[in-house]
Design brief:
heterodimer, A: 260 residues, alpha/beta, Rossmann fold, 8-stranded mixed beta sheet, 33% helix, B: 388 residues, TIM Barrel, 8-stranded parallel barrel, two-stranded antiparallel ribbon, disordered C terminus
Chain lengths: 260, 388
């Protein structure tokens, strides 16, 4: 059972942001993936067992507003840096998944002292290959069934019964999908500047990757980790793009070791 | 009512459709034979010249990375017709300004066509069908925003005659916009905008005096759109003349049997095959429609019409076909059902429909249908007057 401390709104940079705080203990900032799968049990129960998990929704996601000037993860990073100032949270631990990992890296390159330890699960955000080579599978060009196969070791876990969901939940999913495309369509899933800024990261950093991730491959993940000073890299078997969802026990073992 | 000839200039010589997963975006160009392509361009342009001689106006459009439309750069065909035709108006419907990075270049192209044709241009602007965002790489969530910024910039570029202005918008930055030539028509060519279910946008089109156009929709949907247009211009007037335009597929023949055969060939266009991910990229339609898509109740705007078959399409006015008498009756019925409109845009060629039968249909329409529908009115009708 989740111990929901609060679900509130914070106005940051003139934007009303949805903010959840779950559990008690040392704060852990959770920057969720584009599908926000991390915000539900069982993973959230595990994370909140001994930490206060702080979960903002980015502009355009969940219940957060999206002004037109926010057009990329780079913009979200500035909004979140201001949010952390407002919450008087400095040098905290962060868990960023997929899009959330990219946002964490944008924040860590702008204001390195903001994070103490940074755990990144299959983040997007950087491009290492040439102009005619894909670093990141194009999820908007591929047939939807292929995307699910690439995302999940067990594609059954990617199936959602949308027909059984209430309309307000579907509205949030549809808006999240739209905002994700708005922010990441071009340049596709990366900020061309980010690769050149990664040397600024000072947080202790752990990259966690699913061995069968077909969206961003482990090879991409290793290259990414090599660009972040002192970063380590862990692989989880029988997992795709969301190893923390497919193998929560193994994921928590890596996370707890890292944060111990 | 003005009537317009239109073909999307298809390249129909494809492998069997069960071997092809999509005709848009990713169909390899090795399938395109340039010699056949050259013949097709010649033929389609010839048909526009014949249409001009028969008394039609001429409508052109543009699509990319698709076998359904070889007109990949509409200013080129508009420029050819500006020279090769003498009478008909030339409607570019439209310039895909949401997908073209440089609205000022579009303003220049259209101003040239307007001058070369001595003021026969109608300049349409479209946000583009969903598949187009893949070819152009346009952010699918921003096509409407890009469309209107581009239209505003183009109109300013056409109507500013005292030296350069600067423009620093969301999508386009220019330090000195000073378009030469200026358009032949003053203050600028009539502007057309396409749309479907976004009534707020339709009212915006009307309030600016632009012509609103919609394609291949059932008559009750068209009625709602045209009613929205009418109610808006009654409030604000029509500063640019305005108008309402509708496009069905049209085939006119000497017998009902021959007409139905022609209509089935035209239906090639409606039965086009496109992979699902291209049909509804994220953010292209509003959140409310994407909720329906998640529930499995929405698969793109034309899917429902396609599924219903030719009889339904005829009843709805999506496909108009028959002998001249029958075509006259169908157009009058549609005109009445939607409360009147100004422009009948006719796709008179699609798929494998050959030159001879295309021209026969066009000729029958021009000689035996057009004189009997030309008087039908649209925005010019007095408020409250019964259509027809």
């Amino acid at each position: 059972m989740l111990d929901v401390v609060g679900r509130a709104e914070e106005t940051v940079a003139g934007i009303r942001l949805e903010l959840r705080r779950v559990g008690h203990g040392r704060p852990l900032l959770l920057l969720h993936s584009e599908e926000a799968l991390e915000c539900e049990p069982p993973l959230l129960d595990l994370l909140a067992a001994d930490r206060e998990v702080i979960i903002p929704s980015p502009p355009g996601f969940g219940g957060s507003e999206r002004p037109d000037w926010v057009s990329a993860p780079d913009d979200i990073a500035y909004v979140y840096l201001e949010l952390l100032d407002r919450l008087k949270l400095a040098s905290i631990d962060v868990l960023g998944c997929s899009l959330g990992g990219w946002i964490a890296l944008e924040m860590a390159t702008k204001e390195p002292a903001v994070f103490s330890r940074m755990t990144l699960v299959a983040p997007y955000g950087a491009k290492f290959l040439g102009p005619a080579e894909r670093d990141i599978a194009d999820i908007w060009m591929l047939p939807p069934a292929d995307v699910i196969k690439r995302k999940w070791f067990d594609p059954k876990k990617g199936e959602r019964d949308y027909k059984a969901m209430p309309e307000d939940k579907l509205s949030i999913i549809a808006r999240n999908n739209e905002s994700f495309a708005r922010f990441c369509w071009e340049p596709y899933m990366h900020n061309p500047k980010l690769k050149h800024r990664l040397a600024r990261v000072s947080a202790e950093t752990l990259f966690i990757w699913g061995e069968d991730d077909g969206i961003v491959t482990p090879a991409y993940g290793r290259t990414f980790a090599e660009h972040v000073p002192g970063a380590s890299f862990a692989m989880i078997a029988e997992a795709g793009h969301y190893p923390h969802i497919e193998q929560p026990a193994e994921f928590m073992r890596h996370l707890r070791d890292f944060l111990a | 009512m003005k009537v317009w000839h239109f073909t999307e200039m298809p390249y129909p010589y494809l492998p069997p459709l069960d071997e092809v997963s999509t005709m848009w975006v990713s169909l390899p160009s090795r399938i395109f034979d340039p010699k056949i392509g050259a013949d097709l361009y010649e033929r389609y342009l010839d048909e526009y010249v014949i249409a001009d001689e028969l008394g039609f106006n001429l409508m052109l459009n543009e699509h990319h990375q698709t076998a359904t439309c070889l007109n990949a750069a509409v200013p080129l065909t508009a420029a050819i017709l500006a020279r090769e035709t003498k009478r008909g108006r030339i409607c570019v419907l439209g310039n895909p300004v949401a997908n073209r990075g440089d609205p000022v270049r579009v303003a220049e192209e259209m101003a040239m066509v307007d001058c070369i044709s001595r003021g026969r241009l109608d300049a349409g602007f479209v946000r583009g069908v969903p598949y187009e965002v893949f070819a152009a790489n346009t952010n699918p969530a921003q096509t409407v925003e890009r469309l209107w910024e581009a239209v505003d910039l183009i109109v300013k570029a056409w109507t500013t005659h005292d030296g350069p202005f600067s423009f620093e918008g969301r999508f386009t930055h220019r330090r000195a916009v000073n378009v030469w030539p200026r358009p032949y028509q003053s203050p600028h060519p009539p502007i057309w905008i396409t749309g479907s279910s976004d009534f707020e946008a339709i009212r915006k089109v009307a309030s600016r005096g632009y012509t609103f156009a919609t394609f291949l929709q059932p008559h009750d949907s068209v009625r709602k759109m045209f009613d929205a247009y009418r109610s808006a211009y009654r409030d604000c007037g029509l500063p640019g003349g305005g108008g309402m335009a509708y496009m069905p597929l049209v085939y006119t023949a000497d017998s009902e049997a021959e007409a139905e055969k022609g209509a089935r060939e035209l239906s090639w266009y409606i039965n086009v095959k496109v992979e699902p991910q291209y049909r509804n990229p994220p953010g292209y339609v509003p959140v409310a429609l994407n909720v329906k898509a998640l529930q499995g109740a929405y698969a793109g705007r034309t899917a429902a019409i396609r599924a219903q078959g030719l009889e339904f399409q005829k009843e709805q006015g999506v496909v108009v076909y028959g002998t001249p008498d029958s075509v006259v009756a169908q157009i009058k019925r549609f005109h009445e059902r939607v409360g009147g409109f100004d422009h009948l845009l006719m796709m008179q060629q699609a798929g494998f429909l050959d030159h001879q039968r295309t021209v026969r249909s066009m000729t029958l329409f021009a000689k035996e249908v057009l004189p009997r529908i030309a008087h039908l009115t649209g925005v010019a009708a007095p408020v409250g007057a019964a259509a027809e």
